[in-house]
Amino acid sequence: MSKVGIREVAKLAGVSTGTVSRVLNDHPSVTKELRARVTAIIKDLGYTPDPSARSMRGKVSRLIGIVIPDLTNPFFAELVQSAEQAAANHGYNIIVMTSFDHAAKEADRIKQLTSRKVDGIMLVPSNDFHTLKLPKGLPIVVVDRLMPGYSGIAADHRNGVRLGVEHLLQLGHRRIGFISGPGHSVPANDRLRGYLDAIEQADDRTPMAGPPLIAEAAFDYESGRSAGNYLLARARNERPTAIFASSDQQAIGCMRAAHDLGIPIPAALSILGFDGIPLASMTTPRLTTVKQPIQDIAAAAVAVLLNKQTAPDLDNPILFGCEILKGETTAPPQPD
């Protein structure tokens, strides 16, 4: 049986091959009724477009490139998985490359993806993105770590942290420690500002017990464990009754530090994470965390790249709200 071609589909539908192509590319100019008719014929005939032939004609490659700093980070892994699902919903595939959080490698990965004629790139920039120059003429959406002058999509890190601090304040905590991310990280600085905002506003209502307790750390488990040891290595009436970590991995490391020091959670210490990665629900006790809407962020980035959604204005990114996933690691504080 010979392979069905686009001409057979067009003939049976009574339209031009160009119209069939527009249906396949989900072009907005095609009416709903016509799209349904052509799609039904495509399904009946078992027609499958030849992606290599379309690429040779200079059409879309149906490939989206994704560049992330680190594939071992659970947040980025979930972001990639969500982007792959969103791309598949539009008939696209993805190519994933890692920059190892280095601008020179990042530039090389973008160059490789451009040479493969991807239809767009979803980029989580390295922390030294200031040296990066993005190519012109190729749709690029910056995700999570926003870059001035480029369309960006991210969670509202600052307000997400404020939401988490408010949760701890409502429980009655007045000595709230904070494990910030690395100082050169855009999301980390936004989260730190959110913490300081919430503490300052709380101080206006009910005086906090002493100055802010802050430890800077990388976003990983071991750094969270070290930061937890630092914050908890003080007298009981001086140490925090709650610790808010800038990532779930940090929070889990902090839980280990508390365990090693014999501090029960949440009876003597509340711990709150940020990200909402699946691992947060697997800890004992189950981690309470501020969840980023990772699937929404990935879907919006793919939609912008494929012109299904208007790109955000430069320096005016799309910010998605966060929510608290209540687990078992937060409770009212004990009396000193």
UniProtKB/TrEMBL annotation:
Keywords of this entry: DNA-binding, Transcription, Transcription regulation
Keyword Ion transport: no
Keyword field contains Transmembrane helix: no
One GO MF term: transcription cis-regulatory region binding
Residue stretches making up the HTH lacI-type domain: 4-58
InterPro entries to which the protein is assigned, alphabetical: HTH_LacI, LacI/GalR-like_sensor, Lambda_DNA-bd_dom_sf, Peripla_BP_I
Pfam families xref list: LacI, Peripla_BP_3
PROSITE patterns with a match to the protein in the record: HTH_LACI_1, HTH_LACI_2
Name of the protein this chain belongs to: LacI family DNA-binding transcriptional regulator
Lineage: Bacteria, Pseudomonadati, Pseudomonadota, Alphaproteobacteria, Hyphomicrobiales
